[in-house]
Design the sequence.
């Protein structure tokens, strides 16, 4: 009994620094920023209390809804791009031969690059004059398909979704590989004995076994997509004319370009609320599917 | 167990000693160095953004270093912050009321905001004590730094934002004249276009370029400066007025004539300058800041082929066509909290960095200054000498983002991107009007 309390005290003591740091640098600022959302504040001088004014203004702003729409494009592209591709690759690359290890490493590589580097690489690929993509189209005789990929508002958002997908497949691949390797081999044997193989085995045995991992990756995917900022900032800075504005870049611009700290804080609070709704929604959806 | 506890304790003591040391450097009280110096050391903090490898930044760093060596009694704490992040950092410490003692700041909106936040003190005293220095500045140099007859800084540079750079070799090849009127410009564009040469290089990814370099001057040609200042103050003029819509239409006409290369909204101004430097475009509309980049990237032969002029006149325009939009450059601001010995030291530093000698050296580093200096042409590039001559023969008009509120300027930036993608001029004018009107009320 005594050792137990001592252990607990020690654990608490050990956790204390991280809890304190997390509280001071994450939890408190979140509420603090929500509080600033109720003020009209330029950063310098007096802050003026204005109730829900900032929130209603954001909700009435076309650009806010445009950024939300763009952000949902990123969420959809990530959830339906990253997760299935990562899962497929994990299933194909389970064995770990020399070649498979090489492919795994290549898929993971973008993760270790800085997002600024990735942004610059893809900006160059998409470059209207000297870009790789337009050059390639010219080479195979599809010159009329050439486009200014990032300047055309009709496609710019989708063009940015591609590097975002490419960038983040790696970690999900690793998570799926880990989940797959934790399936006990008895399950494989049992499935074989019951005569299940191929797709049948995949759907009835493998996927249910790693379902929890899939759920986690989807949550990570949604929250990651809603935080997406760095690639946009490097590649288009939300332009042209807000065509690729995301919630985070909209928040950044209203805070640090237009210097409306209160309004920016209100927008970040809205981002948190939207993230929570989306994650809760996806959890609800998947729980039901899990039970049936 | 005990040993590790001891280790932790030792480390904690060590850390606290280190922090105590660095802390004392920042307190600004100054530490006397063991009785060797008679005078007490004065601690002074300086923030600047001269971090680059261009001539001007190097020159400024040399000046600061020299100042440091010449003044052993001043303990200068220098923070050099890269230009991209400088404004945001400065605004952040301003929000926390922790300004450095001396810092680089911009005329116009930023000076007004800092003054409004009670963060600045005027430097009239210093300027009046060196009347020769004060009278050396070009007319209007202090306008952006003056509030209620108090001058808060002295400009260290001059930035014309709208210069039409052209490549004489390309013009000669297709027997074209440098356009003086809008019609000539459109004709030149069409002719170059039919010869498969990009008429005007444009890199508007960062969105401020079309605003600062094109519409600031083009708008002024059409509407006149007086209208713009009224519209910015929302006093008797609106951005939905037909004059301004006309200016937007002209810019759109230029784009529809095929003046700019494909994808201009996805490359930035550095890439645009590269395009022009490599002879891939016949013209480029850019500010005086392009000079350093061009001088560094174009060969001497190409550089000698380059010319510079102002934007062409427009039919029926109310503004003087012999002008360019421009602002005086950054200056050193002095924090409100600085006083006594520290203030004397700060004054000396400001004089060293923006005084007559510094202005001359800045000019020789291929950076225009708002100060009367004879230019020794052998020390600068030929293109710089041309721009220097041009600036002495034209008047200066306001730049949009130096006068508009931050929100208004942001609306212009995004609106012009939309305009160049085919948006309706009236709608864009309305958005700009709404943003400016809303932000000026507060």
Sequence:
């Amino acid at each position: 009994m005594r050792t137990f309390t001592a252990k607990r005290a020690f654990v608490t003591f050990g956790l204390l620094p991280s809890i304190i740091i997390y509280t001071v640098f994450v939890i408190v600022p979140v509420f603090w920023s929500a509080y600033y959302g109720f003020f009209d504040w330029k950063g310098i001088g007096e802050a003026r209390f204005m109730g829900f004014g900032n929130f209603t203004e954001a909700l009435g702003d076309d650009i806010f809804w445009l950024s939300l729409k763009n952000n949902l494009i990123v969420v959809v592209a990530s959830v339906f791009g990253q997760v299935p591709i990562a899962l497929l690759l994990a299933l194909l690359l389970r064995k770990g031969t020399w070649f498979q290890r090489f492919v795994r490493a290549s898929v993971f590589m973008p993760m270790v690059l800085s997002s600024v580097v990735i942004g610059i690489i893809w900006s160059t690929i998409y470059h209207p004059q000297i870009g790789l993509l337009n050059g390639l189209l010219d080479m195979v005789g599809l010159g009329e398909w050439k486009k200014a990929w990032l300047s055309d508002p009709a496609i710019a958002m989708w063009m940015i979704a591609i590097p975002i997908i490419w960038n983040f497949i790696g970690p999900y691949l690793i998570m799926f590989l880990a989940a797959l390797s934790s399936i006990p081999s008895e399950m494989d044997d049992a499935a074989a004995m019951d005569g299940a193989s191929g797709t049948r085995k995949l759907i009835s045995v493998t996927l249910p076994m790693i379902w929890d991992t899939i759920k986690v990756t989807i949550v990570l995917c949604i929250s990651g997509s809603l935080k997406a900022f760095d690639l946009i900032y490097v590649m288009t800075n939300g332009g042209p004319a807000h065509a690729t504005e995301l919630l985070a870049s909209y928040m950044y611009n209203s805070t640090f370009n237009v210097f409306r700290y209160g309004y920016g804080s209100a927008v970040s609070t809205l981002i948190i609320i939207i993230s929570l709704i989306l994650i809760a929604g996806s959890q609800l959806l998947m729980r039901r599917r899990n039970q049936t | 167990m005990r040993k590790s506890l001891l280790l932790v304790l030792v480390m904690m003591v060590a850390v606290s000693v280190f922090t105590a040391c660095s802390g004392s450097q920042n307190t600004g009280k100054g530490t006397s160095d063991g009785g060797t110096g008679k005078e007490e050391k004065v601690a002074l903090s300086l923030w600047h953004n001269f971090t680059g490898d261009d001539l001007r930044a190097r020159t400024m760093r040399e000046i600061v270093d020299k100042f440091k060596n010449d003044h052993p009694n001043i303990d200068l704490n220098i923070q050099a912050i890269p230009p991209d992040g400088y404004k945001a950092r400065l605004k952040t410490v301003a929000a926390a009321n922790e300004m450095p003692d001396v810092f680089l700041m911009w005329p116009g909106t930023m000076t007004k905001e800092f003054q409004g936040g009670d963060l600045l003190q005027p430097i009239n005293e210093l300027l009046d004590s060196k009347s020769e220095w004060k009278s050396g500045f070009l007319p209007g140099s202090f306008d952006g730094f003056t509030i209620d007859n108090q001058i808060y800084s002295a400009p260290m540079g001059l930035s014309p934002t709208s210069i039409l750079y052209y490549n004489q070799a390309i013009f000669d090849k297709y027997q074209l004249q440098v356009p003086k009127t809008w019609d000539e410009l459109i004709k030149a564009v069409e002719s170059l276009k039919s010869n498969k040469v990009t008429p005007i290089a444009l890199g508007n990814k960062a969105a401020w370029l079309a605003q600062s370099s094109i519409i600031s001057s083009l708008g002024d040609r059409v509407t006149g400066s007086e209208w713009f200042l009224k519209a910015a103050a929302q006093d008797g003029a609106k951005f939905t007025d037909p004059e301004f819509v006309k200016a937007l239409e002209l810019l759109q006409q230029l784009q529809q004539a095929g003046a700019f290369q494909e994808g201009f909204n996805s490359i930035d101004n550095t890439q645009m300058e590269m395009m022009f430097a490599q002879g891939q475009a016949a013209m480029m509309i850019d500010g005086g800041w392009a000079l350093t980049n061009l001088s560094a990237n174009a060969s001497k032969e190409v550089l000698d082929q380059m010319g510079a002029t102002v934007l062409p006149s427009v039919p029926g325009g109310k503004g003087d066509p012999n002008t360019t939009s421009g602002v005086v450059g950054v200056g050193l601001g002095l924090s409100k909290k600085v006083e006594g010995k520290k203030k004397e030291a700060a004054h000396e530093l400001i004089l060293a960095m923006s005084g007559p000698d510094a202005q001359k050296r800045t000019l020789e580093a291929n950076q225009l200054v708002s100060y009367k200096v004879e230019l020794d042409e052998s020390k600068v590039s030929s293109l710089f000498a041309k721009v220097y001559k041009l600036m002495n023969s034209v008047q200066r008009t306001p730049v949009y983002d130096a006068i508009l509120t931050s929100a208004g300027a942001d609306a212009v930036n995004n609106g012009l991107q939309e305009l160049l993608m085919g948006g309706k001029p009236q709608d864009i004018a309305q958005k700009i009007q709404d943003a400016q009107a809303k932000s000026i009320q507060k």
